[in-house]
Fold these 3 entries.
Entry 1:
Amino acid sequence: MAWFVVEIRYVPEKFAEVRPRHRDYLLSLAERGIVAIAGPLENDTGGMALYQAESREALQEIIDTDPYHLEGAVAERTVREFKPVIGAWLPAPS
């Protein structure tokens, strides 16, 4: 499994209408352990989420199924693999 940081910039006139469906989608992913944390950035210009997926291709399928993407509310999307090393959410080193 790999971690990915996904940042999106919203299409201003579209995101508010789609937001409830987007949040329901992310909630379902969080319940399955795919989304660790997600939320909007300041001034509602976009959002960021931390995903765990088998591969970049698997992640691509997940984020392409997001209502924000399907309904044209994403102006720009950046995906970067992330390798957590230190943090309270990580298991203690053995």
Entry 2:
Amino acid sequence: MRILITGGSRGIGAAAVELFTAKGHEVLFLYEKEHAAAQAVSQKTGAKAICCDVADGQAVQAAFEKIGSVDGLICNAGICQYGLMSQTTEEQWDRIFDVNVKGIYHCVNGAMPGFLQKQSGCVITVSSMWGQVGASCEVAYSATKGAVIALTKALAQELGPCGVRVNCVAPGVILTDMCGNVAQETLDQMAQDALVGRNGTPMDVAKAMEYLLEADFVTGQVLPVNGGYVI
């Protein structure tokens, strides 16, 4: 399969690039600004790195003109925003929605001509357990991830008759750069609260993506990858 992964230079995206190239797929990935990290992932895996801000519709369209059609699209690019909603600026609010939600809109529309021509395709979005239950001091982030879930379910209904499946993974506490500002004590407590007794790794999520990529009879679903922290 020919697979495009957004946000592929680090974290969950980089793990997905590594897994899918190891499985023999042709992988391309988008990244915004982590040039050194993207180059390292590309050199390690052989995947093609393309610099592109998914929030920029023109940049995404230009990227797809170079990429062409794909069989699978993994919309992984995302940013977080910590702090009280009353202290979140309108600029911060708009930026997180532009990346986390509008970025999916841009990328799906970029992939759509190829999907419709082949009457097949697979889209995997990335939400969060906070998109399912909400999190204090992460209102903006939770709101975007809740929107991703609704988008996934609606898009699956819209594209099902065209042979395109749309599913979502909802990670829990995954040890990536996004956890960089979380105290170790808090991370340890969250690991204890998970039913499996640990926090997740990027590869845990990548393996869930692999299942959804291959699950021909699954669409419109949200697959929690949180170790039982939220059930």
Entry 3:
Amino acid sequence: MLLYITILGFFITAILAINIRQSNKANIYLIALVLINNIYSLTHYATIYSTNKYFVAIMIVHFTPLYMLTGPALFFYVRGILTDDYKLRKFDFLHLIPAILFFINVSPYLFWDWNSKLVFAEKVISNTSEIINIRTLFLSGTFNFIIRPFFGFMYCIITAIMLYKHQSINKFSEKQTTLIYTWLKVLIVTLFLIYFSFLLFSILSLESRSYSIASINGFFLLVAVLLGLICLNSSLFFFPNILYGLPQLDYAINQKLEKNTKSNISIEEVKKQYKSFEISDEKLLLLKYKIDKYCLSRPYLKPEFNLTVMSSETDIPVHHLSYFFNEYLQINFNTWKNDHKIDFVIELIREGSNEILTLDALSKQAGFISRTTFFNAFKQKMGITPSEYLSNID
């Protein structure tokens, strides 16, 4: 079962990586966190259950330095979500020192010849406790074995304190904010369960010098670790919106909103138009105003217009735009873009442009790359084809 859970974890990692461009960039640390935890899980499977010496030789030591990055990855992810800033600071690289030290410590094994690694793998297959007898430079195999779950356990405490302080200072009740706070708590508790349980099991294993005895005495600890992995690897299926992060929409705009703006947009009108927009009125009005102002120049008519271009030209992060369209407007970006293009085509038709231009020419003026895309978008918005629309006008 452990193997199947680990495979699921790798699948989740792939999904996260594919969606990273349109999600909060802090998710890159979540990708690292899930990936490393599942490599750790696969290593555990190789060490305990596998009888393939080649597989064991690859897994048991080579990835050890990575395991010291689970704590920093958790820390960077939680901080990045809370601050909406995924970038590392100068002193953040201090978090990487343990991983570097571990790499140096296990370097003798890393540079062993392949045959020597296979011999050691056979010893581990015969007796799991042999893994702590790995040749190292300055930290013993026993220390290596214990420090990995302890390190993750300590980072769970650190991030829990950080989350508590942030939530106590920032009182929010919006749907997405509540979801993110809940998700972060679930993530930290889940990892705490995994690391603490595995830490206790590691201590039992070292005391008994026998995995079979430790697995009997620490059966419930292994079950806790297994449940934690299931929760970690399946959570995105149930809460996909966590990829957007917190909707912190206080963007700087060149011209501040004043009481008497040309658009004369009222809070009530915005609420009526976007009923599901559950952030504050001020942020809602600011974001809508900025996007509406941007659309006055009709950037969507450019064939190369996409979400990345819009993000660059408005200084609104891609994941905020994605969240705005998908969750607030309940429409995907491409449909929103094509609807604006169709509105432009209809405007041209009403002005009589269809008398001198073909439908293909009109679609190209609207930025449609292909005739098929234009016809499909027109029918989706208007319910009829462009030809039927023209016939009705005539």
